[in-house]
Design a protein that fits this description.
It is a single chain. By secondary structure, the chain is an alpha+beta fold. The chain has two domains: 3-55 and 277-423, no CATH class; 61-272, no CATH class. The protein is 52% helix and 19% strand. The protein has helices at residues 3-16, 18-56, 87-94, 128-131, 220-231, 236-240, 255-264, 272-315, 317-325, 330-374, 388-414, 418-423, and strands at 61-65, 68-69, 75-76, 99-105, 107-114, 117-126, 136-139, 149-152, 178-186, 192-205, 216-219, 244-249, 268-271. The strands form three sheets. The chain has a six-stranded mixed β-barrel with strand order 5-6-11-8-10-9. Strands 4-12-1-13 form a four-stranded antiparallel β-sheet. Helix 1 (3-16) crosses helix 10, helix 2 runs antiparallel to helix 8 and helix 10 (330-374) runs antiparallel to helix 11. It is found in: Cell membrane.
Length: 425
């Protein structure tokens, strides 16, 4: 039988049982749509998280903390000066092959006084490396030796209160305003006294939608000076070290080796590359679970295909007998039924992809709308994403399920005795 005759006969048979074919294909559509929607949601969450992750971090970055990670689970911190993340530790880490830069991180709690209002927040030390990453909304950045200047997060102005009435003060002008840092200094007697450091606010940062919007920023030397005043100890950085270090490596390929070297020095090191890998594993598991749930629905639809084609055999008993009598082989009969099953799977797969995509977009719109109603900041994310591989996978899987479902009816039809089929009424 020529391929053109084969395809023509398949189309004719499917049109003849149009309603039954449509209902059977509907089951495939539902199963395929479930796969596309659920895996698409998993892919969307993975894509959004990855983009956010990459916008805030780099895969060549390693975060280093004091102490080592024990097998029991918790962090083990040491009070020995050699274990502190001080300038000696920075020099040791810089000597590791592949390390491009080591950036210390320090922040201290202070009270910022402006125009009679007081804001309790953190002031973060800025190095030459981190200064480049500050994104200004207005004003200018400070120079690292400019000890009397600071920049503030976009929402610091919202945190001021009257120290006498404890009522919020609104409308304080931040840019180019003069302020005072109120530093609480610990005394040997156990008491504390307040020291005042005048500063000028020379810049306001772009809003990021994170806790950073409520922080102030100053040259790291100034923040270290504040820390020594608070502790009343000029060697506090040498003794206690920085909060943590950010280590930047020359290339992604060297990250794992540098991480091992840092861990060997007795510190805890977490690379962004490791965290990125963990995230990918987590989301791949989620997509596999979601996809399996959709696949179950598609396998149920396969039972409908089997039922449709088996019923078709009984209705076409005599027709199959005539075809065999005029020379159709068992392979020809098998091909007809397998192609009919594949066609149902193909139509259902295409329809399922379209329905799944539409359903996913509606879910995405509803989710973003809901997030915007409960969030103080505008939410611009996409929780649904259909990669090209998912389209091909869903379509191929639907067709393969159709073909698999058609094997039994095809074998049964091809095994019919032509004489018995011709005698069938």
């Amino acid at each position: 039988m020529r391929p053109s005759d084969l395809f023509r006969m398949v189309l004719t048979n499917l049109k003849r049982m149009r309603l039954r074919t449509a209902l059977t294909a509907a089951g495939v559509i539902i199963g395929t749509a479930a796969i596309v929607t659920m895996v698409g949601i998993g892919s969307g969450l993975q894509k959004t998280t990855r983009e956010q992750f990459e916008s805030e971090a780099t895969l060549t970055q390693i975060s280093v903390f004091r102490g080592s990670f024990s097998r029991g689970g918790p962090f083990v911190s040491s009070t020995e000066e050699s274990d502190a993340l001080n300038k000696k530790a920075i020099d040791r880490i810089k000597d590791i092959e592949g390390v491009e830069a080591v950036v210390p991180n320090i922040n201290v709690a202070i009270d910022l006084q402006v125009d009679g209002g007081v804001s309790s927040a953190y002031i973060v030390g800025v190095t030459e490396y981190s200064l480049e990453k500050l994104e200004l909304k207005e004003g200018r950045k400070f120079r690292l030796k400019e000890m009397g200047s600071i920049v503030v997060g976009d929402r610091v102005a919202e945190t001021f209160f009257n120290p006498k009435t404890e009522e919020q003060i609104k409308g304080i002008q931040m840019l180019n305003n003069l302020g005072r840092l109120l530093i609480s200094q610990a005394l040997e007697t156990g008491e504390s006294k307040s020291k005042v450091m005048p500063v000028k606010i020379i810049g306001v940062l772009e809003r990021k939608g994170t806790q950073d919007d409520y922080s102030s920023y100053a040259p790291i030397d100034l923040v270290e000076k504040i820390a020594t005043i608070q502790k009343n100890d000029p060697r506090v950085i040498e003794k206690e070290g920085y909060a943590y270090l950010d280590v930047y490596v020359e290339s992604v390929e060297k990250v794992d080796e540098v991480t091992r070297e840092i861990t060997g020095l007795g510190y805890t090191a977490f690379s962004m590359k490791q965290q990125f890998s963990f995230l990918n594993i987590f989301f791949n598991i989620i997509k596999a679970i979601f996809g399996s749930m959709g696949a179950i629905a598609l396998l149920v639809a396969a039972l409908g295909i089997i039922n449709t084609l088996v019923m078709s055999i009984y209705e076409r008993f005599r027709e199959i007998g005539i075809m065999k009598a005029v020379g159709a082989s068992n392979d020809d009969i098998t091909k007809i039924f397998l192609l009919e099953a594949a066609a149902i799977g193909l139509v259902g797969g295409i329809g399922g992809i379209l329905v799944g995509w539409g359903a996913g977009e509606l879910i995405d719109l509803a989710a973003v709308y809901y997030l915007n109603t409960i969030s103080l900041e505008p939410v611009e994310v996409s929780l649904f994403y259909v990669p090209l591989w998912l389209v091909f996978f869903a379509l191929t899987f639907a067709v393969l399920v159709g073909v698999a479902a058609g094997i039994y009816p095809a074998r049964r039809a091809s095994s019919l005795d032509p004489l018995d089929a011709l005698r069938h009424e």
